[in-house]
Amino acid sequence: MKLYDTITLDVTDNVALLRLNRPDKMNALNTRMRAEITDAAQAAALAARVLVITGEGKAFCSGQDLSDSGTVAALDLQRVLRDEYEPMLKAIADCPIPTISAVNGPAAGAGANLALTADVVIATQSAYFMQAFTRIGLIPDAGGTYWLPRQMGAAKAMGAALFAEPISAEQASDWGMIWEWAADDAFDALWRARAAQLAAGPTEAYRHLKTAIRTSWSHSRDEQLDLEGKLQGKCGLTRDFKEGVVAFSEKRKPRFEGR
């Protein structure tokens, strides 16, 4: 795989592991890292059947690198969000393969919302999520105002944004913000097992499933029923569907090929 400066990307057994690699900065996001994450997410979609994003060191991501030249000094935050954050977030959200955020430590500000962009978020028990923006006079960005109300409801989202308090992994799971958490000593094995499960699954069905769920918020009931029918029809034409039916009739575990 391609070599990067601020991240690493490795593909093993159809699992693409993207690791944020600025541990001395708590994996804070700078211009180069955002571009590299965007590129890596696009590359992973072509090389693997699941993408996992995690952090090197003690943190997942502390958010925007406030020392990054050309951002805070110029105060052109709108440009940075439009030209740098949006492509990165879209590359992850629109990735045609399942995506997992393995949150190994604190995820704050844009780092929290980067994590929440993935299809599935798994956190270690000692991790926390924080919408730190109001602490420096800003509003949540990097998709925070989009994901939070949808994942945890308007009341919790508003409180998280206004008070900028840490949300533990356990709270995040209870509130519907993430999928699950694990004790620190079990975390690595859990996310690896989840990634392996998805990497061996019906990749085309996963792709259509993501489309159906992601677009349901903007559809009426009838529109969603129509979309389900169309996408299910496409799933019915895949080799994996045929294998699933045969495996069911033979009472064995299916051997999906991702096509």
What labels describe this entry?
259 residues, alpha/beta, 2-enoyl-CoA Hydratase, Chain A, domain 1, 2 domains, six-stranded mixed sheet, three-stranded mixed sheet, 9 strands
Description:
- The protein has helices spanning 31-47, 77-93, 110-116, 144-152, 154-163, 169-174, 184-199, 203-215, 221-235, 239-249; strands at 7-12, 15-20, 50-55, 99-103, 107-108, 120-124, 128-130, 167-168, 180-182.
- The chain is α/β, with parallel strands linked by helices and 259 residues long.
- The strands form 2 sheets. A 6-stranded mixed β-sheet has the order 1-2-3-4-6-9, with helices on both faces.
- A hairpin with a 2-residue loop joins strand 1 and strand 2.
- The mean pLDDT is 95.
Blueprint (SSEs and pairs):
Elements: E1 7-12, E2 15-20, H1 31-47, E3 50-55, H2 77-93, E4 99-103, E5 107-108, H3 110-116, E6 120-124, E7 128-130, H4 144-152, H5 154-163, E8 167-168, H6 169-174, E9 180-182, H7 184-199, H8 203-215, H9 221-235, H10 239-249
Parallel strand pairs: 2-3, 3-4, 4-6, 5-7, 6-9
Antiparallel strand pairs: 1-2, 7-8
- CATH level-two architecture of the largest domain: Alpha-Beta Complex
From the N-terminal CA to the C-terminal CA, the straight-line distance is 23 Å
> Which regions contain 5 or more consecutive residues with pLDDT less than 50?
none
Strand content: 5-15%
The third-level CATH topology of the largest domain is: 2-enoyl-CoA Hydratase, Chain A, domain 1
Structural class by secondary-structure content = alpha/beta
Radius of gyration, whole Å: 19 Å
DSSP helix fraction: 40-55%
CATH class of the largest domain, named Alpha Beta
* Tally of separate helices: 10
SSE order, one letter for each helix or strand: EEHEHEEHEEHHEHEHHHH
- The CATH superfamily of the largest domain appears as 2-enoyl-CoA Hydratase, Chain A, domain 1
